[in-house]
Write a structure and sequence with these properties.
This protein is α/β, with parallel strands linked by helices. It folds into 2 domains: about 1-140, no CATH class; about 150-300, no CATH class. The chain has helices at about 15-30, 65-75, 85-90, 155-165, 200-220, 235-255, 265-280, 280-300, and strands at about 50-55, 80-85, 100-115, 115-130, 170-175, 180, 185-190. The strands form 2 sheets. The chain has a 4-stranded mixed beta sheet. Strands 5-7-6 form a 3-stranded mixed beta sheet, with helices on one face. α6 packs across α7. The protein is globular and about 55 Å long.
Length: about 300
């Protein structure tokens, strides 16, 4: 297990971490799986939660959320608890033989002398973490322990309070969901328009759609000021849609809600794949921007 943790900076000739991470997500998308939307495969389906490090108690952020969700889907993990091999050892836990770790990344800096001056040079490095499901001591939970936090309800008070505290102008109407940048308001279909699906209830569909548009709302010039594309299919449009998708997924996970799948599933996957293949850092940027948007919304709700 000595090769389970890598902490050295990326050097010339080593695997490009950006490519490695992006290709991991591309592989999922090419298999028709959207790792920030679908519930766990196998066992009892449940809503995603934000993955956390068992030892530090910190929740993972940005691209690491997507990487660990992707690993959870691929390996049918049913917990959101992760730690490095040594961290599990520190808890007197043992990782099962031949288990493979899941990649996460961390940004750091090194001190280097350039033109006679000491400068901090940024770099990215990768680590490997293991899910609780990979431990010798792990016992799968009973079906009753895996039920979703929320059943089908019409209103969820703490989510409504969170949304109200953002101050966003939200109107319901009979058409689709959209953030109108010109009028700076969110339009969303009447709640009666939402129906339950195989992956989420009507209520979850309503709230996850609203979270998607709220993430778009944060990108206004007088808020975070993100660049948005002009039409479906162009690079900036795809980037902004990824940001909104990730933002909705992160927000819903925080409230224990499932996220609704896109109606034109194949078209969106194709658009995202094109964006990821054209820019290997696209998914890093989108996950980071989504985390900033979520942080912005949470600050408004305090």
């Amino acid at each position: 297990m000595e090769n389970t943790v890598t902490t050295q900076p990326q050097k010339a000739g080593t695997i490009n971490i950006y490519s490695l991470v992006t290709n991991t997500i591309i592989q999922q998308l090419e298999n028709g799986v959207i790792p920030w939307q679908k519930p766990w495969k196998g066992g009892v389906a449940k809503a995603f939660k934000i993955p956390a490090n068992l030892v530090t108690g910190d929740r993972y952020r940005g691209i690491n959320i997507l990487l660990l969700w992707s690993s959870a889907i691929k390996n049918n993990f049913d917990t959101d608890e992760w730690a490095t091999f040594r961290q599990w050892q520190g808890k007197n836990e043992s990782v099962r033989l031949n288990e493979k770790g899941s990649i996460i990344v961390k940004y750091d800096t090194i001190d280097k002398e350039i033109d006679g001056e000491q400068q901090k040079i940024p770099f990215i490095k990768k680590y490997y973490v293991f899910n609780r499901c990979q431990l010798v001591s792990y016992t799968p939970p009973k079906e009753d322990d895996c039920l979703d936090i929320y059943s089908m309800v019409e209103k969820i008070d703490k989510v409504d309070e969170f949304i109200a505290n953002t101050g966003a102008l939200i109107e319901t109407h009979g058409e689709g969901a959209v953030y109108n940048r010109v009028e700076d308001k969110i339009l969303i279909p009447y709640p009666e328009k939402f129906q339950s699906t195989a992956t989420c209830t009507a209520t979850e569909g309503f709230y996850s759609t609203l979270m998607h548009e709220l993430t778009h709302w944060t990108g206004a010039e007088h808020r975070i000021n993100r660049e948005k594309g002009k039409k479906f299919g162009d690079q900036n449009y795809a980037n902004e849609e990824l940001v909104a998708e990730f933002g909705a997924a992160f927000l819903c996970a925080g409230f224990g809600l499932a996220t609704v799948e896109k109606g034109d599933h194949a078209a969106y996957i194709s658009s995202w794949l094109q964006a990821l293949k054209e820019d290997e850092r696209c998914i890093f940027k989108a996950a980071s921007a989504a985390t900033k948007a979520v942080d912005f919304l949470y600050r408004l709700s305090i």
